[in-house]
Amino acid sequence: MALGCSTVQIFSHSPRSWAIREIPEAEIREFKRLRKLYNIGPVYVHASYLINLSSETPGTAESSVAMVAQELELAELIGAEYVVLHTGRSVREEGRKVAAQALGNALDRFRGESRLLLENTAGQKGDISSRMEDLAEIMAIADSPVIGGVCIDTCHAFQAGYDLSRTEGTEALISEIERHLGIEQVKLIHLNDSKGGYNARLDRHEHIGKGRIGEEGLGFFLNHPLLREVPLILETPKKTEEDDPMNLAAVKRLIG
Description:
Blueprint: E1 8-10, H1 25-38, E2 43-46, H2 58-78, E3 82-85, H3 95-107, E4 115-119, H4 132-142, E5 147-153, H5 154-159, H6 167-180, E6 186-191, E7 193-194, E8 205-206, H7 214-222, E9 232-234, H8 243-255
Parallel strand pairs: 1-2, 2-3, 3-4, 4-5, 5-6, 6-9
Antiparallel strand pairs: 7-8
Helix pairs in contact: 2-3, 3-4, 4-6
């Protein structure tokens, strides 16, 4: 743990394949041993990027329901507290309702302790979960105790119409969270700057302070009293081994 992190996000299998290999028992034991040794927690598993619970293609929809259940089972197996999920996209007016109902069906199969977090998306064409009221609607329709809350991605929020480069934009986002979800539902923040300009609906992450949200905006967001205790995961670009330490140092500097 050379970076000095106290929480991690992982993939439990390839996020771009429907195939899932069985995790050897020895790997599970070693993961749990190292987690305990370095006092890591919570552990987050990011679900497959292929999942689309609102897909109009029956095979994809069925595979997505099965994959959500499998993601939770794998998380339970390794002792991870949470699975982070993008619910999908749809051109249909009822796409959000379809996804929520499919999600409820997927979660009915699970009896473990791991919990699911719904992540806000960047507002690209067909997105069904880019606004806080969207997430609240999906949670209400799915109506499952397995849903443990939400993950807020700063780049996605900025792209979907929450101007986090400005104090007013962060306050507007938090106001919507409180109104539609409750601030206690925010269990994780994906802290990313944005390569694209405000409300461009472009999901491209940038190094902390080097994008269009900027240091001032991210600094205000990080230090907001309602968000300071929420775990942070960086999903910033990594082209060299220096990139992760650089972004972590930037975050620590902004937190002060």
